[in-house]
Amino acid sequence: MASQVPNAGGQPLASAESRHNEWLSPGGAAYDFRSDVRTSPTPAMLEAITYASLLDGIQDSDPSTKKLEEHVAAMAGHEAGLWVVSGTMGNLVSLRTLLTQPPYSIICDERAHFLNNETGGVFAFSGAVPQPVRPSNGKYLTLEDILPHVKLGHGEKVHAVPTRVIALENTLRGMVMPLAETRRICEFAHANEIKVHLDGARLWEAVTATGSSLADYASLFDTVTMCFSKGLGAPAGAIVLGNKATIRHARWVRQSIGGGIRQPGLLTEAAFVAVRDTFEGKKLAKTHEVASRIGRHWEACGANLLYPTETNMVWLDFTGQQFGLADVIAKGKEKGITLNRDRLVIHYQISEAAVQILMDVMTELTRS
Ligand SMILES: *Cc1c(COP(=O)(O)O)cnc(C)c1O
């Protein structure tokens, strides 16, 4: 029996348009605030898949994948790029590539995605010791937060594990790390023979919010990962950026964890469209406006936000309210929108109708 869930498949594809229209129906991406990974591939992406190169992408990148890698590397001020199947794989490949000879440790924000949400893969595959740091401003790490944790690796203190990489994340919980602070940390690291990695899964959002370019941020780092499947809306994939030697080695690491894909063009053509239509097509700024409007509405209802709304995320604080997260989820579900936590993520396919429902739910609950 055919499923009633939008995009559940199980039937021949009538047309890209009709498939795409499924996300406009309640229950589809247009009504889903759980994450920006809930976007649905557009007709343009589905069409791009049909003209993808069908060549092998393991030893060298196939033409479709090469086009994407070169385009994004150029935009981000790096020599080369390597497509990987996920942001998780991108962080693993990047960090494994930067770390050469143990003992070594990685300094990161204690909330870092690769520390908390990637099943420990980076540490399992590299043997690195994590050095988590809490940002004193509650938003992003500063050089002053990092300095007391740095172990310079000159070998004189044999008990300490030397810091070989500082890994930053931007955006983190939807908040932007300012360019000036990013530059200070990277300059300190490089002056002390420490490598720097940027988990820029949502760097697209940070540069949209600040008006900086991708290159302003990305070129400061030895390696960078960026996701195509979050706010840009591609079905899968991420990229690792670095210089040619780094990317050559990264291809080896990718292969060692089974990340080589035979015909990646089917996915990379869709990702190319996502970069072109969503990022270069400037669709992200609108999502920040919507997020800000929702955040302001929540505050106008007399409630607080856990974090400021700087990009596409709204963080709800329930302290002091007569209702909780479960009530928002239940009332939202009743009215046709999908939420799952205190974090609301706005993506470019969220409909105005869904935003209205969400704001009405907020009004109703804070009033009662
Ligand atoms: C989503 C995300 C990742 C991992 O990306 P996947 O494609 O889901 O594996 C890594 N870092 C950050 C900051 C992310 O938000």
UniProtKB/TrEMBL annotation:
Ranges where the Aromatic amino acid beta-eliminating lyase/threonine aldolase domain occurs: 32-317
Coiled-coil stretches: none
InterPro entries: ArAA_b-elim_lyase/Thr_aldolase, Low_specificity_L-TA-like, PyrdxlP-dep_Trfase, PyrdxlP-dep_Trfase_major, PyrdxlP-dep_Trfase_small
One Pfam match: Beta_elim_lyase
Keywords (A to Z) from UniProt: Lyase, Pyridoxal phosphate
Molecular function terms from GO: L-allo-threonine aldolase activity
Modified residues (N6-(pyridoxal phosphate)lysine): K230
GO biological process, one term: glycine biosynthetic process
Keyword presence, Lyase: yes
Cofactors: pyridoxal 5'-phosphate
Keyword Lyase on entry: yes
Listed GO CC annotations: cytosol
Lineage: superkingdom: Eukaryota
Family: Belongs to the threonine aldolase family.
Record-given protein name: Aromatic amino acid beta-eliminating lyase/threonine aldolase domain-containing protein
